[in-house]
Amino acid sequence: METQYHSGFGNYFESEAVAGALPQGQNNPQKSPLGLYAEQLNGSSFTAPREHNLRSWLYKIQPSVTDGSFNPIDIPLFKTGPFTVFEPNQIRWKPFSYAQKEINFLQSLVTYTGNGAPQSQSGCSIHMYACHASMKNTYFYSADGEFVFVPQEGDLEIKTEFGTLKIAPTEIAVIPKGIKFQVNLVGDKARGYVCENYGASFVLPGLGPIGANGLANPRDFLAPSAAYDDKKQESTLIFKFMGKFFEQKLKSSPLNVVAWHGNYYPYKYDLKKFNTINTVSFDHPDPSIFTVLTSPSGTEGVANIDFVIFPPRWMVAEHTFRPPYYHRNLMSEFMGLIKGVYDAKSEEFAPGGASLHNAFAPHGPDAQTFEKATKAELKPEKYDNTLAFMFESRYPFAITETAAKSPLRDSNYQSCWSDLKSNFKV
Fold this sequence. Notes:
This protein has three helices and 28 strands. It is mainly beta. The chain has a domain at 275-415: Jelly Rolls. The longest helix is centred in the C-terminal third of the chain and has 9 residues, at 367-375. It is globular, with a radius of gyration of 22 Å.
């Protein structure tokens, strides 16, 4: 059966897997239809302004209070702030490798970097995954942060309380805090990136002078239709709370929501539908024009996290250096590559790899790219078969001990700029 979706970002949706499961009239009647239990899931405080108030009503076969007690467990390489080991050097990692043994998504997560902490509801952490197995009878949810999935290799089926999201490389999925889910493979393996956002929920950025149309269009975001699971078999539910992990042993699947309505739900987006705005006259515009989603902070225009992409696009400009300019930035940047070659680097920045440039760490095109760009004929050119992305934050990123000592860390990264010679002449 083909997965069904609702279209729109931040819209109020309703969905039922069985006709008549949603009550009519009252939001929470004395007795829910079909013998279901009403359970509200809040992604904001009760008194948040209406335009920022996030909540959904779930109509469940059994309420979550029947799940039982939590017991602590350990997931050793899946880390949470506060992060304390900061490094000023530019850092690059080679593509994340698969484990020798068969492990699922949750078991494969390795935290590379992060900032802030869930206790302060600010910052994020960034993890890598490379798995060979589905989660089967294991489920997960987090009180700490919303999860942004960025697959690089292999399709994923993400089953949630609200229904199923199927994503492939060049698509993303966002699972807000508190929503239970399970990650299954469509093929035999999958690899990619996850940003765990501790701060304000991701929203679409303002368009300012761009006007009404551009960047990511709200209609291209898709929320799942209700699809409940009523299997009576033992399962494990893992809960992440303040950086610690706990598990519950259940007698059935926790994905037992038959119907739901609200504006707090998981969603997916196809990055190929991004409406790229680029220069047609001169100079390379700031990368903020490639922002897909933003997590606001307390300072207007200074993001807790921005999710930015560098997609296929036409390069049209006159008398200008087209690749990204050399710069030192207040914001800190974690980059990954989904496919192809990033326009500021040669092939050594490979799909599945990553780089980190912290606050005011200088970075930009390598020597080979600079030389090529300064001699290229300035004519319209399609920059194709590429997709890079960036998680950019107002908070500097610390790296974990695992990432710092990883054999995948590129010890020769800085050498990519060593051939930039002084050409100054008077």
